[in-house]
Amino acid sequence: MGDNVALKILKEHLVEGELVPGQEIALRIDQTLLQDATGTMAMLEFMAMGLPRVKVALAAQYVDHNLLQTDNKNADDHAFLTSAAQKFGVYLSKPGNGVSHQVSLERFGVPGTTLLGADSHTPTAAGLGQLAIGAGGLDVALAMAGHPFHLTCPRIWGIKLTGKLQPWVSGKDVILEMLRRHSVKGGVGKIIEYYGPGVATLSATDRATIGNMGAELGATTTVFPSDENTLAFLKAQGRGEVWRELLADPDATYDDHDEIDLSQVVPLIACPSSPDNVVPVSEIEGLKVDQVIVGSSVNSSFRDLMTVCRILDGRKVAPGVAFHINPGSRQVLENVVAQGGFMMLLLAGGQVHQPGCLGCIGMGQAPGTNQVSLRTFPRNFPGRSGTKEDRVYLCSPETAAAAGVLGVVTDPRKLSDLLPWPAVQNPEQYLVDDAGIIFPPEDGGAVEIVTGPNIVPFPEFPALPDQLDLEVIIKVGDNISTDTIMPAGNKVLPFRSNIPAISKFVFEQADPEFAARASEKGDGAVVGGENYGQGSSREHAALAPRYLGIRVKLAKSFARIHRSNLINFGILPLTFKDKGDYDQVKQGDRLQIANLRELVQGGATEIPVRVNGSEIVTLLHASERERAELLAGGLLNKVKEETNGGQS
């Protein structure tokens, strides 16, 4: 039996365990990625380890989230990150240089290597045949310190692509088709690998789009082969020397299977308020549109933006529509300008913004009350836009541009009545400009780290007690995202380096009184449904609740990254053995767990929990390593114990 691409990379990087789905493994990490919303805390965590220099082949820090400087906080954090990057040997992408994933694809990604990023959309690097995994900031900080990354060995889900996309259909429609078929839980515990003759028809940036939104399926990551299209992109970036061919063996097998005939994919759109609420665009045609935004971590490449430029060329944005363009990088914008696209956008009435995440994480661009917003973004979770009860739809650049011109949701294939299909291709040679990247010095020992007043030391957490008596502070339903647990937006994100301050926003949308109630009650628990903690990798969705006294999260199931983050900060992630017991637990109930340390240390899977005097059985699926972290009160405590020779 031959190997698929994912297995080839996993085998090359395996340092612990066996590649058996469900077993814990550890991988050597080649590159790391931090962005400013997660990176400030991650850098503080790295500094706590006392190392003079990062120990990975390449570490990069991006400033792409907190770009609004409404007071000193973001500017202070950026100064901190700039100085820390210089000191520890990290490349820094300055504000306005671009979204981490687009810039990483352009300037740093290497086929066949591993990338660990403190952002759930790190798998954008699938576009280069890189095995890129999103994780919590603490996991990335440890990788920067030279530690391997531990995870449960995933299944490999092979998606065979045949045929070729029709005009006006693009990579975004492919991943929306996957979400339509398989839901936001369909990829949990899996690496998605695309193979087959249809792969050769997709550019590196189309593949990056598909890899980016594999995160919305809950997948561990996504991977494409590294082939001639990969080489063409790297050569166009002036980096052809890093290319290596990486293909699945002819007799490769996969644990799970699906097949997509690209010629049968139609323009699709995800309706409010979940990325898997997908229907053909034709089903909702005629819906009045108030706002359109093209660009973010996904669909912000040259091909995406230039396609929009060609559609808008010589036309006007419809009256009553606000049309925003967020380039993925400075390089993308420069190449669009060079091709004449910038004037096409401006003359049509578009608003071109600096490269960055912007509205995707509620950093501006919030829609008005009851307004319909079409976005090429990866997520439309409730309130993520910054507007409560928002009406956000996710679509391709082609569908977005059609709505911008006509003012209503329109199948973009109907644009053929107005103009020929643009058929935009990526340049054979990009204009390359690294002026927005600060390269680290060979020796950063003399660099002084700049620390502003919003940088607060990492909180200390006690070890796991032997007995817990908890109140259920909140009970929530299925598919609760980390946006619901720990909101983003311009009001909250600047406090990412200040845990006492940011903790006041936990569950703010679902229950504004949660933070005060949790602080008042002492040790507490959160009860959730299926896929609890989906979405963003933000570790603050675990760290801030832990600061408020949450010791247990009890759910039907957990999203992968959030579960890891809970363990990293000493929160016990328990699941119901009988999912029907979810209905027996209410907000305000008391939960008691006895002999807890003995059960965790002894490897017990079943953890009895008394609920108002009655007993239910919960499950703790955790490796020996994870149990040691829980006992210590979190991963940092465990690292300190090991560093101090067992003395905490």
UniProtKB/TrEMBL annotation:
- Top-level lineage group: Bacteria
Per its record, how is this protein called by name?
A: Aconitate hydratase
Q: Which Gene3D superfamilies does the UniProt entry name for this protein?
A: Aconitase, domain 3 (3.30.499.10), Aconitase, domain 4 (3.20.19.10)
Keywords, A to Z? Iron, Iron-sulfur, Metal-binding
What InterPro entries does the database record attribute to this sequence?
Acnase/IPM_dHydase_lsu_aba_1/3, Acoase/IPM_deHydtase_lsu_aba, Aconitase/3IPM_dehydase_swvl, Aconitase/IPM_isomerase, Aconitase_4Fe-4S_dom, Aconitase_put, AconitaseA/IPMdHydase_ssu_swvl
| One Pfam family, short name | Aconitase_C
Record's keyword annotation contains Disulfide bond = no
Lineage from the top down? Bacteria, Pseudomonadati, Thermodesulfobacteriota, Desulfuromonadia, Geobacterales
Q: Which residues form the Aconitase A/isopropylmalate dehydratase small subunit swivel domain?
A: 520-578
Please indicate if the UniProt record lists Metal-binding as a keyword: yes
Query: Which parts of the sequence belong to the Aconitase/3-isopropylmalate dehydratase large subunit alpha/beta/alpha domain?
Result: 8-407
Q: What SUPFAM superfamilies does its record include?
A: Aconitase iron-sulfur domain, LeuD/IlvD-like
